[in-house]
Amino acid sequence: MFLLASDFDRTFYINNYDFKKNVDALGGFMKDNLFVIVTGRSYQDYMNITKNYVPVNYLVLNHGATVLKDDKVIRSVCIDNKVKDELKKLFDFDNIEYFATKDKLSRVSIDENDLSKINISMKDNLVAKKAVEYINSHFKDIKAYVLFHKNQFEIVSSKANKCYALEYIGSTLGIDRNNIYTVGDGYTDIEMVKYYNGYCVNDAVDDLKKVAVSTVSSVSEIIEFLNIDIKKEKVTDELVSFINECYQHNHYFEKYMSKIYGKSSNDKNHLVIRNNDEIIGCALIVPNKIYFDNDYLDILTVGSICVKEEYRHKGYLKILMGAIKDEEKKYDLSVLSGDKSRYSKYGYYPNILSLYKINSKRHDNIIFKEINDDYIDECLNMYNNGIHSIRTKDNFKDILKQWKCESYYIYQDNSFIGYLIYNTKQDYISEIKCNNIKEVIENFGIFKGRDYISLSVLNNDYSMNNIVSNLELSKMYSKKLYSINNIEKVIKVCLDYKFKYSELVNGSISIKINEKIIRITVDSNNVVVDSDTKYDIELDCEQFMNIILNKKLTRNNLLSSWFYLDIDMYNNDLV
To answer: Which structural domain, as residue segments, surrounds residue 381?
Structure first.
């Protein structure tokens, strides 16, 4: 489901023909989606021109100060009465043309309390511009906007803007930011167009054009775009061919992801965008779990995200990511491999992969042989001892051989002792399960003819961290991106696991993360994570993900003891 929010004047209504075209387009769109008008107009001014011809789910008035649903005010952000009194000293309201609004009342006295907006007309453009500059530089609790009439400007609370109003509606309905689209033409539209999937009309101001995804001639053009068909589909030859073409690989996905793209796949595990039956974009979504001893997190692994070349840079990736974010709501977190700069805007943040250098040294009693079917059960038991995802005997060997990896059984004194996976593309050991790990890796360097070999370690694998604590760090890079949906469960499960293997400082603290407040309590017996109404520290989403994934808080002994709680999994378990 999408939410489309449009400014009214010079956007939804440009002329009578365009107005009717936009209204007609809403008929089909609003069967499955939501539509919101966001305007600077007051209630009566808006109703006088539209005469209720425009169907809306919500109506946002007065530059975001007033929100209505079913013709009832559900949110009102007012100009502080003390600030209004200061404005009365600044402007001679008895001798200038003005009007003030309050909720649905469009013309009230300046002496009324809790005003939504004040509109002021000056004698010329220059005076109006200077008044706006003065207000915006001397008042922190209000904001003034120059109107297209040039000699008019309007004043609202600094907490009242279109973007905040949409954020309120989106959070009320549980609509992800990536599924909210906006369109406007003027300065008051800049924030909402920049923050959401924003467009502008042809005659928009230049500052708005700079932040918009693209320019459209009509709101109906966006509606037509959002009516695109997107469904879950099974793997077919057509789909595999499309993905190979997008990534410019020949049979790459059948070969290296055979359990997903082979002939035996029957799951509807792809989100597919079609235009007149032609595939123009898709994404792979596969449920998985990360086990932490006896507890686990439900995760969604995401991959094969692609859009056909001629449809790129037109917004289809945003639609695809919006559908993925909708799917993620069923899971505690999701993970993908990709570029941070591309996916951070969708709430994905990188985990830093650390590679450690182990110098090569010959151990004649240790040898390596390519994996076959002989010890699959033993390998699977080793893998399941500790942090792991879902691997079955049927797909275990296939998983280990994916992503251009070499897989080896390890023998010591001619006895099987474990296995390792070597990433040939990035040149490091990506997974190893055995005893005598250091000696095995030293001899693997000799086996590969290298002076040293690099080893990657899951940052939440505390037993392995003890082995590499004194080793030289050879490289660090971000490989996996994570997005957290169920904050309380992720913290509880990961902190419980750390509690078993590390000494944590006892204490309690409440953290506000965006609009959610959680309290974490650690004592000598257990870890408790629950909701709270007050908070001790506030973090935005990026700050929170940083301390969860790869950064310690050095200024707070309590939090530095608990974080980071790195959420990590082997690369071979990613799709």
So the answer is: 361-450
Cα–Cα distance measured from residue 320 to residue 405, given in angstroms and rounded to the nearest whole number: 30
Q: Which residues pair with 121 in a beta bridge?
A: 97, 152
Nearest partner of 23 among 55, 45, 47, judged by Cα: 55
CATH number for position 48:
3.40.50.1000
Whether residues 69 and 172 share a domain: the answer is yes
Q: Is the pLDDT of residue 14 over 80?
A: yes
3-class DSSP state of 63:
helix
DSSP 8-class letter at 418: E
User: Of 208, 226, 244, which marks where a domain is finished?
Assistant: 226
Cα(354)–Cα(542) distance, rounded to whole angstroms? 21
Cβ neighbours of residue 111 closer than 8 Å, sequence gap 6 or more: none
pTM of the shown model: 0.75
Do 220 and 233 sit in the same domain of this protein? no
Question: What gap in Å lies between CA 184 and CA 201, rounded to an integer?
Answer: 6
Q: How far apart are CA 158 and CA 141, in angstroms?
A: 5
Helix locations, 314-392, DSSP H: 316-328, 340-343, 376-383
pLDDT tens for 70-122 read 999 999 999 999 999 999 999 999 889 999 999 999 999 999 999 999 999 98
Residue 567 pairs in a beta bridge with none
| Each residue's pLDDT tens digit, 156-168 | 999 999 999 999 9
The answer to whether 302 and 323 are in contact (CB under 8 A) is no
Which among 157, 192, 207 is the end of a domain? 157
Of the candidates 148, 228, 222, the one whose C-alpha atom is nearest the C-alpha of residue 182 is: 222
Question: What is the rounded distance in angstroms from the CA atom of residue 539 to the CA atom of residue 517?
Answer: 10
Peptide bond just before 452 cis, omega within 30 deg: no
- Say if residue 339's pLDDT is above 90: no
Residue 471 lies in a domain: no
For the chain, give the mean pLDDT.
Answer: 89
CATH number at residue 422: 3.40.630.30
d(CA 97, CA 86): 18
Give yes or no for a contact between 74 and 53, defined as CB atoms under 8 angstroms apart: no
Distance CA 24, CA 312 (A): 28
463-488 burial code (b ≥16 CB/10 A, e <16)? ebeebbeebeeeeeebebbbbbbbbe
Q: Is 76 helix (H, G, I), strand (E, B) or coil?
A: strand
Let me know whether 414 and 512 are in one domain.
no
